[in-house]
Amino acid sequence: MSFLLTNFSTTTLMLAGACAQSVLSSLLPRRLALLPAILILTTRLIKTLLISTRSIPNSYENRVVKGRFTAQIPNDDGTPAEKPSNKSMVVFVIGVSSNHPLGLLAPGFRDMGDSFFKMWDDAAANKDTSGLLGHTGALWEDSEAADTGKQVLMLSYWKDLESLHTYAQSPLHRQALDLWNKRVKTHPHLGIMHEVYNVPKGGWENIYWNSPKTAMGQTNLYPNRTSPLVEAKGAQWGSMLARMGRKAAN
Question: How high is the pLDDT of residue 250?
Answer without folding.
Answer: 54
